[in-house]
Prior knowledge:
The complex is a heterodimer of chains A (390) and B (121). Chain A is of the alpha/beta class and 390 residues long. Chain A has helices at residues 33-42, 60-74, 94-103, 113-116, 119-136, 160-179, 196-200, 206-225, 237-241, 247-254, 288-297, 327-332, 351-366, 372-375, and strands at residues 6-11, 17-18, 22-27, 47-49, 79-86, 108-112, 142-145, 150-155, 183-186, 264-268, 278-282, 302-306, 320-324, 339-340. Chain A contains 14 helices and 14 strands. The longest helix of chain A has 20 residues, at 160-179. The N and C termini of chain A lie far apart (53 Å). Classes of the chains: A alpha/beta (390), B mainly beta (121). The A-B interface holds A 159-161, 163-164, 190, 193-195, 197-198, 219-231, 234, 240, 242-243, 245-249, 252-253, 345-348 and B 1-2, 5, 7, 15-17, 40-44, 56, 58-59, 61-64, 76-78, 81-90, 92-93, 98.
Amino acid sequence: xxxxxxxxxxxxxxxxxxxxxxxxxxxxxxxxxxxxxxxxxxxxxxxxxxxxxxxxxxxxxxxxxxxxxxxxxxxxxxxxxxxxxxxxxxxxxxxxxxxxxxxxxxxxxxxxxxxxxxxxxxxxxxxxxxxxxxxxxxxxxxxxxxxxxxxxxxxxxxxxxxxxxxxxxxxxxxxxxxxxxxxxxxxxxxxxxxxxxxxxxxxxxxxxxxxxxxxxxxxxxxxxxxxxxxxxxxxxxxxxxxxxxxxxxxxxxxxxxxxxxxxxxxxxxxxxxxxxxxxxxxxxxxxxxxxxxxxxxxxxxxxxxxxxxxxxxxxxxxxxxxxxxxxxxxxxxxxxxxxxxxxxxxxxxxxxxxxxxxxxxxxxxxxxxxxxxxxxxxxxxxxxxxxxxx
Amino acid sequence: xxxxxxxxxxxxxxxxxxxxxxxxxxxxxxxxxxxxxxxxxxxxxxxxxxxxxxxxxxxxxxxxxxxxxxxxxxxxxxxxxxxxxxxxxxxxxxxxxxxxxxxxxxxxxxxxxxxxxxxxx
Lengths: 390, 121
């Protein structure tokens, strides 16, 4: 084991490796969100919370996605213990979420607003439980190697520098993590459109290749059945001001962040478990927060997020590292940016040298160093939904 | 630092790395191009003449098609390039293209069998 590829993480009872040790407060439904937030605030800085808009009034696939996502976070290796905050009459089942955490070897408790008897009693009982969970979750970091990592790669607020600097640099790091036995997940199906031939050529089976093409076709089919032109949002108005002309151009720049050599192992649904080793494409929308939420649900412990125009997005349980190839953004949004790789564009810095810096930063963050998003308290969370609320 | 960058040798556009003024002569990987109009930093310029309908190539892959003839040194962006993807505004695919079974034309007997009129009307 090469110490240069090591970090200090939390080895969980189920064998997965975490890079954070949060006590996760999970509301089953929007109706329990405020109580959950108050409980989390009371155990700051240990509490992470997943306020969301769903959990009831949902049918079929959307209900499944909500349940799947919340359960995935309860079992996630960046979480040391779980408190589920229920209302009592909702669709999402509190006990199922707690059981998912327990199956992963984590202490888990449930508190419910209707049975506890209102906001005040539930909040105080929840804080009492949460404090017990903080003690139960105490854990030591030990030496872990990069093969245990699932890296989520993401870009947002892209401009011309994204495809010329930040994404190629991140791609080298993706290649490196996969070559060390780790895994990489990329989402944003619409932003693979126009570059799918490059990923399909790296599929490990014909079935995986045709699965990728099928999810991309679905986006075009949805646009057509709705009679809508995705140029209204892809590229976004900011992308166009930044010099990006078409979705194909955006995708060809964006897909570079998944590396040049990573084998495409699997194509999975939103928040579904990511394959060990190699690259997984996850069916997520392009909207940054929904995309990151799903990839962390899939098991990514750390996210590297490239941006040209700058954006603050974080996540409740996974560190999100921001890198930019735009020197102006690195200065104008300095509090949001972790790494400036703008030297790559003017050839002042070799891509490989910038990739070495990024790889070292990823390992430092996995060992506990706070990202800009963590320091600023950015904990955005949004579960993807397709259908109307009933 | 070069004033414009071509990513792949087959690209017919380059990205301006600084604002480029009309009339200036720039060198892109050994090719000389005279800038025909203002090109904002981060935007693309044509490296050679591109005919209407021809692919715009960047990163070695097509990123859309020219909607008009584009001369060398001209700004290449949303005003003279059209994407080919996600175009729900273009004619919808047939059911067969969408992988759906072709609709079956019901015979009058089928309809009556499915919903018989009890009062004979």
